[in-house]
Structure formats: structure tokens, C-alpha cells
Amino acid sequence: GKEMSSWENAQALYEQGRRHMEGTGVERNPVEAARLFRTAAEMGHAGARTSMGCCCAEGLGVDRDPREAVRWWRLAAEQGYATAECNLGLCYGGGTGAKKAYADAVRWRRRAADRNLARAQYHLGACYERGMGVERDYHEAAEWYRRAADQGDEKAIDALIWLCRDYRDIAMINRSILREAAASGSRRAGQILRTLE
Predict the structure, then answer these.
(1) pLDDT tens-digit series, residues 114-146
(2) Direct distance between the N- and C-terminal alpha carbons of the chain, in angstroms, rounded to an integer
(3) pLDDT (mean) for 178-185
(4) What DSSP line would sit under 137-196, residue for residue?
(5) Among residues 17, 34, 83, 154, which is most buried (max CB within 10 A)?
């Protein structure tokens, strides 16, 4: 038979690791999952490096080690893997496994947000709303929240609704999101819409 390429081999190990982590078709086994992720991660697989970071961050199948999580996420982030970029940005923002560095928090969140990762867009919006590593800018915050909200991110929808409450122009721009939220039962969104009529 045809030899598997090293990437195909790493991908197969990664997928096997995911099955063990989720218990899909095999008994759930985080220790085996972490072993498979580590093997694929050491072969340079960005998804496996990201998963290995998650194992280290949460103590799944390995000892909890936030610094080691950051090391794996940085490797994957440098490969342009959006989830790892976002996770790294959150570590720098919170000082978990890395020294607090707001400029780095924003830089990594922005890279992932630019790749259209909703979670990163939400967290970048939060940087603008709080003035964390960037100048506070509620309109820029609303723009990033809207991008995440358009992908169904619940936290972003809530954050955007709060900004709409305080800023009529932001509410006007985001009427469609307010309407959807109101239709889904958000009383606050309904109240804001009534003020715009």
C-alpha cells in the first residue's frame, strides 16, 4: 500500500485523539487522547498542538500546566491556527500561563478575529469596550461584537445589546440583531427597539 505522508499520519493521530477525548466510537480516554495529540503535535500538526494546549490548560489526560498550554498554543498560533491565536490572546489578557501583556492580548485576538473566529471577535470587542490594550472605542467594540453576533455568538449578542442600550447610533446600525434577539425572547432588545421607533 501507499505510504502515508507525515501530515496524513499526524492528521490520523489527531483525529484518533479527538475520538478518544470525545468518546466517539471508542471509550472516552483523555490520557490516550493527550498521548495521541502530543505525538501529532510534535510532528507539527497545528490542530493537535492546539488540543495539546487545551489538555494542559484544563488538566485533561495530563497534569494541569498553564505555561505548557501557552507553549503549545504559541506554536499553533505561529502556524496561523485561529483557535490557538485566540487562546493565546486570552492568556496574555488574563495573565494565565503568560505574563499579562495587553498589547499581545489584542494582537493575537485580532489575528484570530480577522480569520473570522467568532469567539476571538467577541473578545476583541471586549478589549475595545474596556480600553484594554487599545484606546476605548465603543463603536469599534460594537463592530467586532456584531461580526461575532452574525455567527450566533451568544456573549457577543448580549454585549452588543448592552451597547445598543447606551448608544442610539449603535442601536440604529444593529436593528436587525436587536429584532432577532427580541424575537428570541430578549426583553432588553425589545425595549431598545421601542425607543428607536
Answers:
(1) 999 999 999 999 999 999 999 999 999 999 999
(2) 69
(3) 93
(4) -HHHHHHHHHHHHTTT-HHHHHHHHHHHHH-HHHHHHTHHHHHHHHHTT-HHHHHHHHHH
(5) 17
